[in-house]
Specification:
The protein is mainly α. Helices cover about 55% and strands about 0% of the residues. Pfam families: COX7B.
Length: about 110
């Protein structure tokens, strides 16, 4: 857990966790959101701390996105920029950015 995050959460707790005192955490026995909403703030913070610690200690194998996500993103962005650069400079598109001097008004028809 990040030091700043741990320090901020420790302000809400009394410094000693239920596990350190040898007690079963109260919030682990309650499963619905109404029961956890009625818990005091320190119990909810402890529950949050325990959840974060459980997630931090899980062994997680890298998946496809962890392995190849950044190179695929960078190669796609490079390809896109290269195609746009080629289209903007080499194809010969006449962009017509300003019609000033190119638009000639038609003569009125006489009746």
């Amino acid at each position: 857990m990040f030091p700043l995050f741990r320090r901020a959460l420790s302000r809400f707790s009394d410094g000693e966790t239920e596990a350190q005192r040898g007690e079963v955490p109260k919030d682990l026995t309650q499963h619905n959101s109404q029961a956890s909403a009625s818990l005091p703030l320190t119990s909810r913070v402890r529950s949050f701390q325990q959840t974060v610690e459980r997630q931090n200690h899980q062994d997680r194998l890298p998946n496809f996105h962890d392995k190849y996500g950044t190179p695929i993103l960078l190669s796609g962005a490079t390809f896109c920029l290269a195609i746009w650069a080629y289209a903007a400079t080499q194809i010969g598109i006449e962009w017509n950015l300003s019609p000033v001097g190119r638009v000639v008004p038609k003569d009125w028809r006489s009746q």
